[in-house]
Amino acid sequence: MSTYATPLKDMEFVLKELARIDEIAKLPGYEDTDLDTAMAIIEEAGKFATNVLEPLNRTGDQQPARLAKGNQVVMPPGFKEAYRQFREAGWTGVSIDPEHGGQGIPVAVNTLVEEIWRSANHAFSLCPLLTVGAIHALELRGSPELQARYLPKMVAGEWTGTMNLTEPQAGSDLALVRTRAEPQGDGTYRIFGTKIFITYGDQDYTDNIVHLVLARTPTAPEGVKGISLFVVPKFLVNEDGTIGKRNDVKAVSLEHKMGIHASPTCVMQYGDAGGAIGYLVGEENRGLEYMFIMMNAARFAVGIEGIGLSERAYQRAAAYAKERVQSKDVGEKGGASVPIIRHPDIRRMLMSMRSQTEAMRALAVVTGAAIDHSKRNPDEETRNRARAFVDLMIPLVKGWSTDTAQNVTYDGVQVHGGMGFIEETGAAQHYRDARITTIYEGTTGIQANDLIGRKIGREGGRTALAVIAEMEKFDAELAKGTSDDLKAIRAQLAKAVEALRSTTEWAIANFGNDVRGVFAGAVPFLRLWGITASGWQMARAALIAEQRLASGGGDSTFYRSKIATARFFADHSLAQTAALRHQVTAGSRGTLEMPEEAF
Ligand SMILES: Cc1cc2nc3c(=O)[nH]c(=O)nc-3n(C[C@H](O)[C@H](O)[C@H](O)COP(=O)(O)OP(=O)(O)OC[C@H]3O[C@@H](n4cnc5c(N)ncnc54)[C@H](O)[C@@H]3O)c2cc1C
How far apart are CA 296 and CA 310, in angstroms? Predict the structure, then answer.
């Protein structure tokens, strides 16, 4: 049975060489986070994950969270104690600004910490993930009173947070939200309505839960411009900060799901007994706008789920492939049966899993570094450029990484043969758990629309073309690579970048006159961007690895492996870009032609 091992070498390489942690450590507020400190944090997270979180992953899958009497969720055995340890070790506030009681580590470093939680226990990690989302909402627009009352407890992990957006008739389209918020004349509101699919809507970890809820006031205009954001605590909080009366909000049922069984997905009922007391965040009717500002962080966090699950699935598959003996080596005459890792097709799957995981990690951490620069770089132009890059990359980190995690966890099952279908090995759990990641926090279709519409179409492709130009410029650098591997990587990257440019120009040119045709290719377009952008990072990695090998010293096995995974990615993933270009630019007719009644 495989145990999770933090991929420390790759994490260090990505932080140091691709995200340039030395540059991040020069930014105001990040001076204490050099590479050694960052790696010490990551190692600690890894130990906690391996010792405390991973042993509960299967327990949570087999003994899901349940709803007990009094609308109280009871978490799977061991989870409450693990959460206590997680909180006491200070992990709940690691990414939060020190101004609000957190440790404020750079996003690039936190990306790896988050990956570790997702690898070890995806379902457990969702509670802190949602709490951080709620903290950000309060940091962003909460009044000083709301901040003072809720933030310290949430940052310390003493209370958790939730995000209540979805309703039965309002999923991707939040303009349809119907939950009501009636002003009481004393600054508070009474909230009435039903929210569905609310992650950690209730739990038994903490004595209070802070729900962030989207609702409409009676005078609100229709649609997206009439939605406001409220804090609705499970228990009201007295002036002195102590816990008061139970509020009129409860979990009325839990969903039975395909995966993440330990994560309670709640139907939440507000206002059965006179109305839940809620406090407005920011101004009325601007709730969705606040949500949009926070969305980048939330989508980025879900993208990391794809990476964490892929890493874990890869490690499990690699361990199994070394142990399982079956069939002779096709290249040897006679001889005994061999471990299945000797079979070329098993190696293909393992290399596919590993190279895609490394590519996703590289893209996410480089994007994390850009988030750090967008917030703290003293130079305004650099901040703006970084922000534009981040906006473009977010749908890729979310949409492409979670989409890719489906292939990786699928191969994880396949490597195990029949045992992959049997729950005992754990491969099936990764496959099932990964399935939600392309759905919540905006489906892949919604990410792809965001990329091709808001991020590219509407701004005439300014940022996209500037990023493509950077990729093209990198070709001269890549030409310094001397080995056959580097030459092959360069050739594939050049073709991919050319496909990316021509497809992006096609989308820009057709956005105004054939918008349905352009949107018909949105998901293949997202894949084309995801593969090329991460292939660019893999090519950078391969070049650095070759240079380190040439100068001697360091871990030569690691550098050679990095070149091998980059080469594999070039020949197997970058090579798909020509087909993706065709799907986008020529595929809309086939997608849209058939009359609706023929379906
Ligand atoms: C386990 C789980 C946990 C969740 N946790 C939370 C939570 O904590 N808080 C919360 O508020 N919500 C949560 N959700 C809800 C989640 O965010 C929604 O399910 C998701 O946004 C999709 O909405 P929907 O299910 O209504 O699907 P729909 O919006 O009905 O979508 C159905 C299909 O139509 C497609 N589609 C819709 N609109 C478009 C379009 N414009 N263009 C192209 N395709 C489109 C979608 O991509 C999808 O394939 C959770 C859901 C699940 C299953």
Answer: 22
- Dist. CA 285 → ligand 1 center (Å): 22
Q: Are 251 and 202 in contact (CB under 8 A)?
A: yes
d(CA 361, CA 100): 29
As a three-state string, the secondary structure of 493-562 is HHHHHHHHHHHHHHHHHHHCCCHHHHHHCHHHHHHHHHHHHHHHHHHHHHHHHHHHHHHCCCCHHHHHHH
Write the pLDDT tens digit of every residue in 284-298.
999 998 988 888 899
Instruction: Burial-class residue 83 by CB neighbours within 10 Å (0-12, 13-18, 19+).
Output: buried
445-449: list long-range contacts, CB under 8 Å, 24+ apart: 445/172, 445/522, 445/523, 446/172, 447/299, 447/395, 447/398, 447/399, 447/526, 448/395, 448/399, 448/522, 448/523, 448/525, 448/526, 449/519, 449/522
| Among 261, 302, 443, residue to substitute to test ligand 1 (most atoms within 8 Å of Cβ) | 443
Q: What backbone torsions phi and psi does residue 547 show, to the nearest 5 degrees? A: -65, -40
C-beta of 165 in contact with ligand 1 (< 6 A)? yes
Residue 468 three-state SS? helix
Q: pTM score > 0.85 for this model?
A: yes
Q: What atom in ligand 1 is closest to the CA of residue 199?
A: 8
385-399 confidence digits (pLDDT tens): 999 999 999 999 999
CA distances from 84 to 66, 92, 157, 199, 451 (A): 19, 10, 9, 19, 39
